[in-house]
Amino acid sequence: MKKIFIISMLFVFALQTNAQSPFAGIWQGLMGEGSKSLFVVFRISEMDNNLTGTMDVPQQMILDYKNLKFRTNNDSLIIDIPAFKASFKAILDKDSLRGSWHQSGHENPLVLGLTPEEKAFSMNRPQTPKAPYPYITKEVTFTNKKAKIQLAGTLSIPDTTKVWPVVVLVSGSGPQDRNEALIRHEPFHVIADYFTRNGIAVLRYDDRGVGKSEGNFPAATTLDFSSDAASAVAYLKTLPYINKKEMGMVGHSEGGIIVLMQAAENKSLRFVISMAGVSVPCSQLLVMQNDALLEGYGAPEEMREFFVNFNSALYTLIQIEENPEQLREKVTALFNESVAGLSDEQKKEFGLNDQYVTSQLMQLNTPWFRYFLSIIPTNYIKKIKINTLAINGSKDKQVPAEENMEAFKNYFVQRPGTYMDNHIFPDLNHLFQPCTTGLPAEYAMIETTIDPYVLEYMTNWIKKVLEPSRK
């Protein structure tokens, strides 16, 4: 399996005083093959005899990247990308740039073709709602009194003449804005629009420390984000056009865990929906997730086995060892022992070098990660007494559907008059998009933000659980 890297182009431009540079234009092409291929786009322009431009590598969530340095020499071009320690070096051949991508000691051939604007890569997002809307939207703020921060969001309501059921949308991991925007998809905007058009008010908000919300995102844990979600519910209870007996939450990914935490303890909630939420222990989930991604990208069996064993032991160490120096010593010893049986080629292929332990500890030894590893979702699931729906896509590589749905089925406690349901949607990924492989590299290339049937399914389920109280 050849390793594919983000692309850095070395363009050598023959700039002419009174002529447009032959390197100006839109250049695009594929690097690699199959599921490991990356689509690369450079948009290059000339200003004052200097080249400037942007880079897109949508499968790696890179859009309009501007930190590029251009060098030219006759018909050769070099584009350096310092942040990625990479470069693209190419020779102009009529309407093609024939070259290679260099990064971290690896070299991959890359040929880019000059492409007219109307045929160039663009990311269409037909589901993103456009104003004017047939409902009311309000910019709102509310306070998490415990954290002493103010959070900002958008409340959409059918109108203010009646009282309406309401949903709080809770985002997944990483700093997310109120729309859960990702590679120009806006899933929470799409959900809010659909729900509101169907008589369900929606509050979506920026994560703490993101957008217009106060707070320190890097210092926060899943428990802190759960507190923010509870504050959103408390705020909604103060509004005259919200039905206090018909309040719910819909959470995606990590947000799917948070709504389970809230469902177990927040007595103001009538229902929750966990979208691609987790039911297995989170330390186990991360091992499963990594293995599913490696399998999807074609990693050999022996390397998958290596990472399953190493990551399982690593996450245990992270949870039990609090002393930073001792943790580093133990993780280093674990790493050296684990890689002893691998060939030099395997180590190079998967980046298992002297910097690996340092990079892992920088990522894992944080408040959020330590807390996340300790979460056992079934501790919350078995305490839930309100209406709960767990949904997933069959091709989800980040939260594998079958394993997680099985635990929901086993730990849901069915009670009279309460719906405890689960559903797996065929051929959908972690974002609930129709997909081929389910790998994250596909997310940007799929125009659909959320499969319309998922929106319809969730809406109908909410109406179903609210119907008994309206008779």
What does this structure look like?
With 471 residues, the protein is of the alpha/beta class. It folds into three domains: 25-119, Calycin beta-barrel core domain (Lipocalin); 136-281 and 375-470, Rossmann fold (3-Layer(aba) Sandwich); 282-373, no CATH class. Helices cover 30% and strands 27% of the residues. It contains twelve helices and 17 strands. Helix 2 crosses helix 3, helix 4 (282-296) runs antiparallel to helix 5 and helix 5 (301-320) runs antiparallel to helix 6. Residues 1-18 have low confidence and may be disordered.
What is shown here, in short?
This protein has 471 residues and is an alpha/beta fold. The protein has three domains: 25-119, Lipocalin (Beta Barrel); 136-281 and 375-470, Rossmann fold; 282-373, no CATH class. It has twelve helices and 17 strands.
What is the secondary structure topology, with strand pairs?
Elements: E1 25-31, E2 38-47, E3 50-57, E4 62-65, E5 69-73, E6 76-81, E7 86-93, E8 96-103, E9 106-115, E10 136-144, E11 149-157, E12 164-170, H1 187-197, E13 201-205, H2 222-236, E14 242-252, H3 254-265, E15 271-275, H4 282-296, H5 301-320, H6 324-339, H7 344-349, H8 356-364, H9 367-374, H10 378-381, E16 387-393, H11 401-411, E17 420-425, H12 452-466
Parallel strand pairs: 12-13, 12-14, 14-15, 15-16, 16-17
Antiparallel strand pairs: 1-2, 1-9, 2-3, 3-4, 5-6, 6-7, 7-8, 8-9, 10-11, 11-13
Helix pairs in contact: 2-3, 4-5, 5-6
